[in-house]
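User: Before I run my own analysis I want an independent prediction to cross-check against. Here's the chain; please return only the structure tokens and, at the end, one sentence I can use as a sanity check.
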Amino acid sequence: MASLFRSVRPVVRLRLPTHCSSRRSASSIPRPKKPTGPAKSSIPPSSSPPVPKQRPSPTSSSPLTPDLLQKQWYATKLFNQGKPQIHRAPSHAGILGASYILAGSCFITSGALAFSNLWLYDEASDLPGIVRIGWRLGIITFTGIGCLALLRPINLIKSIDLVNSDNVVKLLVQVRRPVPFLRPKQYIIPPYEFRMDHTFVAPMEDPEYLRDDAPETRSILSSIGRRISQAIYYPFAATRRLMTLEGFMYVQLKEGAAKVKLDTQGTFSKQGKDLVQMGTIEL
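Assistant: Structure tokens:
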């Protein structure tokens, strides 16, 4: 049966004309569409790319004056010579200690005046009015002195150094915080923005004959007495410097910011001449 089917299959196969088969095969192939309009190129026309707008830099809009350039050059010269240290403040432990002791004693006194004599608040008492006024003025006075003593040693400059910031030599100013054992605040500013309210005055030196003729005491009793006198004198001297700010100079580091205090009794490079050459003096 299978052999009979194979012999009959070529006979019953449908034979199509030649032109029909060619038309059928040709229609199965997709023809490209003819362009109806001008072809648009996917490549953009050769034109220059858009240039982004550049913001004007502060240096280009406000160039440095020759005076400021001289100050910047002087700071760069010192830094290249390996002299970055400009100022080191002395120890302010005595001033801070005097501030805490004086403020604490004033606050304790004002608190004792305010809360220990509560009967003074009684309006029905027979005390004269001058006593009530003096009692209230005492509370206000001690409170004000305590606040003044507590705020006096704020913003004391600890050190001034030259550093390289963004390939430009600038001043690194470290300012002490009023609370001990905290890291100081740091300000990195151009040298010409260090604005002082007055210049330095070199102290008078003693003549040589006074220094040569001064006797040298080497006894133990004299050295002990000198130490005791220094220990007694130091708290009074620290309190005087705290309240009068003797030897301090006000310095402004930024526009609109609070002024800081520079202790002129510290050590300076070339006795402060380098800082005067780099900074700005506004009398």
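Sanity check: The longest strand covers residues 157-165.
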